[in-house]
Amino acid sequence: MARSLAMFRWLLLPWHALRVASSEKAFRDNPVIGSPRLNRLGLHIARKRLAHRMAARRRAAMAALLPDAQREAFLRDGYLVIPDFLPPERFEAMRAEVMARQARARESLDGYTMTRLIPLDAFALREMPATRQALLTPRYLGLHHYIGSFRRLPRLYVQTIFSGVRQGPPDVQSFYHTDTFFPTVKSWLLLTPVNQAEAGFTYIPGSHLPNRRHLAWERRVSLTAHLAGDRLTGEGSLRIGEEQLARLRYAAPRKLEAQPNTLIIADTSGFHRRGLSEGFACRISIWAQSRGTPFLPWPGGDLTIPPLRGAATRAFGWLDYAVKRLRGRDNGWRFAGTRRPADPPAA
């Protein structure tokens, strides 16, 4: 059996090697990407440097999508906070529609946090005209295109984060980490307020542009990431302690508090985390994410057939669940039946 498994791994080696030129990030699952010998020679850092150069080139081609002040602030800090993003009437119409939405949800319980996701795919948005009118606009999409460095429709969800639902440690998103080795985008259009005592998004300004110390740290981590006891580091979402982070000499972390109708959008290849919460809190937002192929020199476009545009949001949930089950892993997510965004967590 062991010999057969070893032979199978050798037969897959060309496939693993080809994945080096893709968005594949898992050290544990890919023996080429996770190879200590190759990473000692600089494979991981070479992929990171090239991916950042390509993203800069794609963003330069889309510079007109953002006003000069916003573009300069993002390039400096790695994130933007835009209050009063939508006209008040449009925001209130969207919020009423979203909060009344009852649909099949996925939920994850981790540490003291429960997260609920309700997809806003093409099929859902057909039934939600105010939400569609608010989100599928050149301004909203342009921000995601530029910061994500690709012209593609982001996956959209209603995200509810319940903090302090039980006694336990902080959830895995509450530790500083990077999502990927290459620039990517996530955003939150807040439907409820977030204050300093709650689980606000926390970002290390400027960390989307890796400095010399950052690259040296990632090189060291890449040598042992395939054996990391931390599952997410092994999968390529590198975790870092606060003491190590301080040695990289970035600006102090910023935990963001904001009112409803604020858009927070960031390149999550920079260091960030979900802020720690003091007691029970509930945060509801429109959550968007988009991730392209890091080594392409052009920003491309959305090739989806228009009637199905955005349908991948729901399919992604099913596919993620199926792949993790086939690999014998539990990613913590379950289908929770029909829920509204503000429905309290089940006991």
Keywords:
single chain; 347 residues; alpha+beta; Jelly Rolls; eight-stranded antiparallel sheet; three-stranded antiparallel sheet; 13 helices; 11 strands; 35% helix; 18% strand
The number of domains is 1
Overall structural class, as computed from helix and strand content, comes to: alpha+beta
Q: What is the alpha-carbon Rg in Å?
A: 20 Å
How would you sum up the global shape? Answer: globular
| Helix fraction by DSSP (H/I, runs of at least 4) | 25-40%
Regions with little confidence, pLDDT below 50 for 5+ residues = none
CATH superfamily: q2cbj1_9rhob like domain
**Overall CATH architecture:** Sandwich
Please report the first level of CATH classification, the CATH class: Mainly Beta
Beta strand count: 11
Strand content: 15-25%
Task: Quote the CATH topology.
Answer: Jelly Rolls
C-alpha end-to-end distance? 44 Å
Order of helices and strands: HHHHHEHEEHHHEEEHHHEEEEHE
Give the rounded overall mean pLDDT: 91
Question: Can you put this structure into words, describing what you see?
Answer:
The protein has 347 residues and is an alpha+beta fold. The protein has helices at 2-11, 13-18, 36-40, 43-61, 68-77, 88-99, 122-126, 129-135, 138-148, 212-224, 231-234, 242-247, 312-326, and strands at 79-82, 103-110, 113-119, 155-163, 185-190, 201-203, 254-255, 263-267, 272-274, 281-290, 333-339. It has one domain (26-336): q2cbj1_9rhob like domain (Jelly Rolls), CATH 2.60.120. It is 35% helix and 18% strand. The strands form two sheets. An eight-stranded antiparallel beta sheet has the order 1-8-5-10-4-3-2-11. A three-stranded antiparallel beta sheet has the order 7-6-9, with no helix packed on it. Strand 2 and strand 3 (113-119) form a beta hairpin. The longest helix has 19 residues, at 43-61. The termini are far apart. The model has no long low-confidence stretch (mean pLDDT 91).
